[in-house]
Amino acid sequence: MASKATGRWLVLAVPYLWLLALFLVPFLIVFKISLSQDAIAQPPYFPTFDLAEGWAAFKEAFAELSFENYGYVLSWDNEFIEAYGSSLWIAGISTLLLLLVGYPIAYGMARAPKSLRPTLLMLVILPFWTSFLIRVYAWIGILSPEGLLNQLLFALGIINRDAPLQILNTDTAVYIGIVYSYLPFMILPLYAALEKMDETLLEAAADLGCPPFAAFWKITWPLSLPGVFAGCLLCFIPAVGEFVIPDLLGGSDTLMIGKVLWTEFSVNRSWTVSSAVAVLLLLVLVIPIVFYQNLQAREVERR
Amino acid sequence: MSTGVAEKTQKTIGGIRRKFAPWNDPQAVPLISYKNVTKRFGEFVAVDNLSLDIYEREFFALLGPSGCGKTTLMRMLAGFEDPTEGQITLAGQDLVGTPPYKRQTNMMFQSYALFPHMTVWDNIAFGLKQDRMEKGAIDARVEEMLKLVKLEKFAKRKPHQLSGGQRQRVALARSLAKRPKVLLLDEPLGALDKKLREETQFELMDIQMELGMTFLIVTHDQEEAMTVADRIAVMNQGRLVQVDQPAVIYEHPNSRYVADFVGDVNILDATVETVEPGMVTLRPVAAPERRFRIAQDCAAKPGDSVAIALRPEKMRVELDPPADTNVNCVQGEIWDIGYLGDLSIYHVELPGGVRVKAAKPNLTRMVERPITWDDKVYVYFSPDAGVVLTS
């Protein structure tokens, strides 16, 4: 009995240790830096804790921690709040677009002949075999004024050679980039939810007098909601903090918190402010994560 | 409800059942009519040029092994499949091309197909809401249905909070709620255990009588079909083999296939010796020195090879020969005994090596039975016990 219990604890300990070492400890370090002050030194902030200096020094260093950086970030005079808002907005719109594009694809896949489904699934996952960065760069080649899209439109005579479409370096390009890059994360949970749905439910609805379109809204849509929520959160959360896509495809006026954080860290060399930005970003994202977990718990209960 | 009233209702129902036989009335107009219906899935012929009439208030069973086309036949009536050729009419109207949501049929699905995100109440009300029935009328109808299937207390539950038997009842209530012209039941009791299944069979019959509706049931369980149905259609490979009342199907099967599929049966090969009106004399292949007399009119000619179908319960196994010389008798040896409690099934090997089964009710509680393994026994049956099958 004792060995069985020990074994179970060992198995449980692995993921906890993993989270402790690779999530909680780094987070606490970042949090500590966010409470420190900038310094031109190595490391570029103070205070630092050195246990060798004894308890008194530790207490002294602790007293120097403050929430000053948070006040700076949350002040209306600076661009941070605007950047958070803009990030949430862009991520929200992108998630909506992802849902609109992803749902029909997932639906088509789930209703495809069984023999075809693994192939379709493979095709959705296939882009992951190329580097994310390269795929985003490729969009520059497509969207730039001399890019493939404009070339095609010239060739078809749809637009004038003197007035190419200005998509690159706009918010539109960011939306295109996010929708393209995150689409598999939307499709896969939707597909999982739609695929396990019993198709005789639709026959039953039709049998009871419900035409197909109404049956979609009354049966298919509510039953796919867990997939919709999972897909939306999987896309929304990373999209809020997205840095590469707005940096490469967005314009100078595309304001996203990931980009701001990067500027704060690499250009302004302020570890402390960028840490505070990161901690606040985490807080903003924790709310939808908690919401999602609640939802999942309810889902488990229902079974 | 007092038992007296219940008994009376039962008697009335029995009385109506006994008199009900519209299929014998040449004036009767069928409610459902399949006319030369063929359904092909690619190369596979699921239903093969089939014609069938079903009458109003009838409880009709489609019986056959899986893949015989019975489910396809039903799904064509519901509108989930369209016939490749032929015509299906319901109350005189041609159904082909009408989508399922515009047909006055409702189906109880084998998997029940209850909407998992809706309560029992909402499941039952679903079809009524589609008809834009007014709220008060929906409430009244749902209450009535819940009462009918005895689930009043479970209205607010979701399907996953119910037992299998309760789900089956919700599915039944949902399919009955719209008062369809025909209720289609696709293996409705397949998922229930034996006891519950038997109870539910009688409940189904009572509900059918009470609502005065036409029920069409698909089943592979011959006992179920025999219990519930007014008429049974036995199907094989997309065709109807025999359509008749349960007792006729059982006692007068028209072919080896029907005799074999419905109930337990011994099939003995034999050669026709003489044919008289109402009596056939045959020479069984398993015991050529014997002659069997079967009381029936027969189209076969002397010398034809035929089969004799004998139900085990109509055969007697005794240690002594029968006193009555009129009965058919053959000698054999006990090969095996199956003790079922109510019955014992004796497997008797005839001299030619053919084995037959004879059932004997266990009328006393004696554990030591007089007949045992390797005993020499007489197997006998009266001339009206067997059926000569020419196909």
UniProtKB/TrEMBL annotation, chain A:
GO terms for cellular component: plasma membrane. It comes from the Bacteria. It is a multi-pass membrane protein. The chain crosses the membrane at residues 9-31, 88-108, 120-140, 173-194, 223-245, 271-292. Residues 84-292 form the ABC transmembrane type-1 domain. CDD domains: TM_PBP2. Keywords: Cell membrane, Membrane, Transmembrane, Transmembrane helix, Transport. The keyword Transmembrane applies. It is found in: Cell membrane. One of its GO terms (biological process) is transmembrane transport. Its main location: membrane. It holds the Pfam family BPD_transp_1. The keyword Membrane applies. InterPro entries: MetI-like, MetI-like_sf. Belongs to the binding-protein-dependent transport system permease family. CysTW subfamily. PANTHER family: INNER MEMBRANE ABC TRANSPORTER PERMEASE PROTEIN YDCU-RELATED-RELATED, PUTRESCINE TRANSPORT SYSTEM PERMEASE PROTEIN POTH. This is Putrescine transport system permease protein. The lineage of its organism: Bacteria, Pseudomonadati, Pseudomonadota, Alphaproteobacteria, Hyphomicrobiales.
TrEMBL record, chain B:
InterPro entries: AAA+_ATPase, ABC_SmlMolc_Importer, ABC_transporter-like_ATP-bd, ABC_transporter-like_CS, Mo/tungstate-bd_C_term_dom, NA-bd_OB-fold, P-loop_NTPase, PotA-like. Keywords: ATP-binding, Cell inner membrane, Cell membrane, Membrane, Nucleotide-binding, Translocase, Transport. This is Spermidine/putrescine import ATP-binding protein PotA. It catalyses: ATP + H2O + polyamine-[polyamine-binding protein]Side 1 = ADP + phosphate + polyamineSide 2 + [polyamine-binding protein]Side 1. GO terms for cellular component: ATP-binding cassette (ABC) transporter complex. Part of the ABC transporter complex PotABCD involved in spermidine/putrescine import. Responsible for energy coupling to the transport system. GO terms for molecular function: ABC-type putrescine transporter activity; ATP binding; ATP hydrolysis activity. It comes from Ancylobacter rudongensis. The complex is composed of two ATP-binding proteins (PotA), two transmembrane proteins (PotB and PotC) and a solute-binding protein (PotD). PANTHER family: PUTRESCINE TRANSPORT ATP-BINDING PROTEIN POTG (PTHR42781:SF5), SPERMIDINE/PUTRESCINE IMPORT ATP-BINDING PROTEIN POTA (PTHR42781). It comes from the Bacteria. It holds the Pfam family ABC_tran. Its EC number is 7.6.2.11. Belongs to the ABC transporter superfamily. Spermidine/putrescine importer (TC 3.A.1.11.1) family. Residues 32-262 form the ABC transporter domain.
